[in-house]
Amino acid sequence: MNGHLETEEQGDQRPDQELTWSWGHRPRSALDRAKAMAPPPPPPLAASTPLLHGEFGSFPARSSRFALTLTPQALHIQRLRPKPEARPRGGLVPLAEVSGCCTLRSRSPSDAAAAYFCIYTYPQGRRGGRRRAARTFRVDGAATYAENRAEAQRWATALMCLLRGLPLPGDGEITPELLPKPPRLLLLVNPLGGRGLAWQWCKTHVLPMISEAGLSFNLIQTERQNHARELVQGLRLSEWDGIVTVSGDGLLFEVLNGFLDRPDWEEAVKTPVGILPCGSGNALAGAVNQHGGFEPALGVDLLLNCSLLLCRGGSRPLDLMSVTLASGSRCLSFLSVAWGFVSDVDIQSERFRALGSARFTLGTVLGLATLHTYRGRLSYLPATVEPTSPTPARGLPRAKSELTLAPAPAPAPPVAHSPLHRSVSDLPLPLPLPRPALTSPGSPEPLPILSLNGGGPELAGDWGGAGDAPLSPDPPLPSPPSSPKAALLSPITEGVPETLASSGLPPPTPGSPGAVSTRGPHDHLLPPLGTPLPPGWVTLEGDFVLMLAISPSHLGADLVAAPHARFDDGLVHLCWVRGGISRATLLRLFLAMERGSHFSLGCPQLGYAAARAFRLEPLTPRGVLTVDGEQVEYGPLQAQMHPGLGTLLTGPPGCPRREP
């Protein structure tokens, strides 16, 4: 930065640290935290009701003037000078595409009276992909900096309140005090997720966006299988407002079953969890993307959509299945139980993991070439209330794949790490990350450290010249006595916590994907395995090509197996395909599943039932069973759905893409 630029003095500060997103003040229990995740409903205003209107300059082109109008759904931008646009490009910014907003000030003495606010957006291009764009506006309507700063804060606060679903005062003053303190999130990153790009995508896309949104986070890279499971067993969960996995579905499976291994599992399982997709299947992320109202997406586009939803806050109850295996051990499932063709493809395609999501396409082709049938018995307890009929969903063009969406970047430089974790960013921000940790593609220098205090990056690169940026974020204020301190965080220790050792229960075997627990909710609908089922159950026996028990709507990011399913409908959706189906028909079923229209094909071998519990008894001596994509012991199993047992960070439902 130029030597004559200077930052604001500490004495001329207001509580800018409040200009951040929060899911509420720290609750005392996981259940309270889960309730606090959902923002209060917005005021009943029409989508086009003007909330704020003003005229501002721009940056860096100071000769331009713009009229801004903020509504509950969008920010309208109209150029006034030098020449009004008849059809303004980028003049409508839906709030669904906004990650955050910050206030800035000039470090030039000649511009000391002006204040600035910057809006971070991720609009979709003509070809559908999202790209980051920052719009900076100059507040210069008053003679003093204090007055201009108050106006900039008013706009930034109003925008952040709308993004978080917080009500604006009807006739009161809009001040930063309206926003609660930032949440504390634990990010768990599997650097080998998908095609091994998870860490690179996290640095390039996730960390900048959530920092723009004002989220406070710690980040840990997992180093081995079941590492996340061991970590969550030793956490003081009261110190975290949510745990977010940056990987595929497998890492979240570890986290949930790590909760199950704790003596306080009933409270721990209520801890809000989220997922940012950097894996191969990304089924839960596909369902979150659909819930948020976005078009189907893959690769980086899906990651940016889910990151935007996480930044906006909000959660829903998450149904979890308690699965009992033949040995009597149990595990929690948030996704699916699969047997036959689906589990065969899932496990046999592991050797093609370097292909990312394309591994399933190749695995499907190979599976069709050697199509097997399996004899078995499926029994289920029908749901008392049947769901609505399956609704077709819109799908992606088949030519659009993760391989074309995300070209492989150059490998990241090695990062120094401790034996436990490779990278931790502690609270509060700015973060002492290694210099290569936040790099901007195509930028000659790393991104500036991002601030939580109503400020943000110095925006180097947003206008071209990395060394010419005359703006800086308002400096942070000291944390108030009630705010959490990094020193108060519980140490994250290696190995099994003392609470488990003192309980007398053996710890799960590290490195085993089928490591399961004997704890969990009471399955009151299920008799013990091997005993007769009570009246009211339906039993099907015969030859099956596949059997799938799924909870959310998606089997993959682009496979909608149960288009009518919801996260909290309390149902397990059973889909099966009987023997006798041709390869061509089975292929048509999976192609139609991209749009969620496979039930409308009228295939006689395809069956569906909504259930509350089920039992699967394979009668073929060999086969593959998977729970959430993880292979488990082969043999009889049974499961019961437990409505709302967990909490999922989903963002607001049905984010509008265009304002009417």
From TrEMBL:
Residues 453-467 have a biased composition (Gly residues). Its main location: membrane. Residues 472-483 have a biased composition (Pro residues). It comes from the Eukaryota. Its EC number is 2.7.1.91. It is found in: Endomembrane system. It holds the Pfam family YegS_C. GO terms for cellular component: cytoplasm; endomembrane system; membrane. GO terms for biological process: positive regulation of apoptotic process; regulation of transport; sphinganine-1-phosphate biosynthetic process; sphingosine biosynthetic process. Keywords: ATP-binding, Kinase, Membrane, Nucleotide-binding, Transferase. The keyword Repeat does not apply. SMART domains: DAGKc. Residues 1-21, 435-521 are annotated as: Disordered. Residues 180-327 form the DAGKc domain. Residues 1-17 have a biased composition (Basic and acidic residues). GO terms for molecular function: ATP binding; sphingosine kinase activity. This is sphingosine kinase. It comes from Acinonyx jubatus.
